[in-house]
Design brief:
There is one protein chain. This protein is an alpha/beta fold and 481 residues long. The protein has six domains: 2-117, Tetrapyrrole methylase, N-terminal domain (Cobalt-precorrin-4 Transmethylase, domain 1), CATH 3.40.1010.10; 121-220, Tetrapyrrole methylase, C-terminal domain (Methyltransferase, Cobalt-precorrin-4 Transmethylase, Domain 2); 229-301, MazG-like (Helix Hairpins); 304-346, no CATH class; 347-428, Helix Hairpins; 432-476, no CATH class. The chain contains 18 helices and ten strands. The chain has helices spanning 18-26, 53-58, 62-77, 95-107, 120-127, 140-143, 165-175, 229-240, 246-250, 257-272, 276-299, 305-318, 332-346, 364-376, 385-401, 405-425, 430-454, 464-476, and strands at residues 2-7, 29-32, 48-51, 81-86, 111-114, 136-139, 157-160, 184-189, 197-202, 216-220. A five-stranded parallel beta sheet has the order 3-2-4-1-5, sandwiched between helices. A five-stranded mixed beta sheet has the order 6-7-10-8-9. Helix 15 (385-401) packs antiparallel against helix 16 (405-425). The N and C termini lie far apart (80 Å).
Length: 481
């Protein structure tokens, strides 16, 4: 007793191996995962065919199909020899085979496998591609369930089982997160059969083909430019390697600190300006610094870029148990509360102070707001906003009463600190508010300069009332930038 699994190849009987043909010819009964395959019509006439297509038609999902097929074959294999035939190669896109082999091993039922040509070889032949050029192979059904496909766009991709236009539409939504909509791809229909056709279309049009059926696969060529994180890591590694760039080679984690902070600030500036192209560029500059720090750490054998990615991915999943767990939340407040609880549980040691672990390198306003948010959690704040306004007035008076430069700097710092407290009470991010004010003033003053030039005025001859009138004119135009 036992189970013999045989691959039927990708097309008609021409692709059956000699070993497969001999096994099928000597079998009294062949159980077929599906009868909807070109090779089935070419099976020996003496073979009784038992198909599992009825399970596909009745089951609610593929999980149920695979479970039922595996259970039935395992039941039969415990009492008799069973031949189970699947399309293509048994270990290429055949979920029932991997499940069956595992279940049979656990049950002590012997299993043998007769290889078959998979859909991969004729598909690559159809598009004249070499599998060893970094080909990535995926099941379209499984890939369609991801929101961000785990693909490297710098290498070609072959997707099997693109069996319907609906599935192609679902694939398109995910793939356009990685590839441009206009990227040319190839739909390969009935690869290896006399009816083989190849449609080369833009990615956005893959669900418009009326030829898609259970013998359709999708080939995605690599992009013509580097776009994967690994490509950037390789570039940085080359810059740091012997014979690379002298400047990059000389850098240390500490020497890169100032540049890292500057690039982060430029990202914020581009966000404030709602400059989409600027945000894209500045995020790239910031990403270079992140990869550079990881590369230097890897050289010191401290950690790798993979460690960084694995760490933040695990942290995000760990701190979102309402997504990757069984916690329940009602709103954002619950999420933030859980985040802090989980964060504290992860600490290796109890902090000496509530104010530990607030980065000193943060911009002063942002750090001030974090400090005040921390102490507010233990009730160290005014009971109501009226106390904040009173404190502001008190600090203004103390600035006015200060006599020396040192006193004025000290009192002005207290005033700014109290202003940040007001921002927290009003639910405003102080750092963003000041950046917005800077941006607004910058835009308005540039318009004032333009009006002075257009009206032939001279700055040296303008008095304050005249400048204020021009300023009010600009403000009246409703310009916020």
């Amino acid at each position: 007793m036992g189970i013999m699994i045989v691959g039927l190849g990708p097309g008609d009987g021409r692709f059956l191996t000699r070993e497969a043909w001999e096994l099928l010819s000597s079998a009294g009964t062949v159980h077929l995962r599906t009868e909807r395959h070109p090779a089935v019509a070419d099976l020996p006439e003496t073979v009784e065919r038992v198909s599992f297509d009825a399970i596909y038609d009745a089951a609610e999902n593929f999980e149920a199909v695979y479970t039922q097929i595996t259970a039935e074959l395992l039941r039969l294999g415990q009492d008799e020899d069973v031949v189970y035939a699947v399309p293509g190669h048994p270990f290429v896109g055949e979920s029932t085979v991997t499940r069956l082999v595992a279940a049979a091993a656990e049950a002590g039922v012997p299993v043998s496998v007769v290889a078959g040509l998979s859909f991969v070889e004729p598909s690559l032949t159809a598009v004249h591609a070499d599998a060893l050029d970094g080909l990535q192979l995926f099941d379209a059904i499984e890939l369609a369930q991801t929101l961000y496909p785990p693909l490297n766009p710098d290498q070609p991709v072959l997707l099997g089982q693109v069996y319907s236009r609906m599935l192609a539409g679902e694939l398109k939504l995910g793939l356009t997160a990685v590839y441009p909509e206009q990227h040319l791809v190839s739909l390969i229909h009935a690869a290896g059969t006399p009816n083989e056709t190849v449609e080369t279309v833009p990615l956005y049009a893959i669900d418009r083909s009326d030829q898609i059926d259970h013998l359709t696969s999708l080939y995605i060529p690599s992009l013509v430019y580097a776009a994967d994180l690994s490509a950037l890591a390789q570039t940085v590694a080359i810059l740091r390697a012997p014979g690379g760039c002298p400047w990059d080679i000389e850098q240390t984690p500490q020497s890169m600190r100032a540049g890292l902070l500057e690039e982060a600030s430029e990202v914020l500036e581009a966000l404030d300006a709602e400059d989409v192209e600027g945000v894209r560029e500045e995020l790239g500059d910031l990403l270079y610094h992140i990869v550079m720090q990881a590369q230097m750490a890897a050289e010191n054998e401290d950690f790798t870029l993979s460690d960084v990615i694995a760490g933040i991915d695990a942290k995000l999943k760990r701190r979102h148990p309402h997504i990757w767990g069984d916690w329940e939340v009602k709103d954002t407040a619950d999420v933030l509360r859980n985040w802090e609880i989980l964060k504290q549980n992860e600490k290796v040691r109890t902090p000496d102070s509530l104010l530990d672990n607030i980065p000193i390198a943060l911009p002063a306003l942002a750090r001030s707001q974090k400090i005040q948010d921390r102490v507010r959690k233990v009730g160290f704040d005014w009971p109501e906003i009226g106390g904040v306004y009173d404190k502001l007035n008190e600090e203004i008076a103390e600035v006015q009463a200060a006599d020396t430069p040192e006193e004025r700097a000290d009192e002005l710092g207290d005033l700014l600190f109290a202003t940040v407290n007001l921002a927290s009470w009003l639910g405003v991010d102080a750092e963003s508010a000041l950046r917005g004010a800077n941006l607004k003033f910058n835009g308005r003053f540039r318009q004032v300069e333009q009006l002075v030039i257009e009206r032939g005025l001279e700055w040296q001859r303008l008095d304050l009332p005249t400048l204020e009138a021009i300023w009010e004119e600009v403000k009246g135009r409703g310009s916020a930038t």
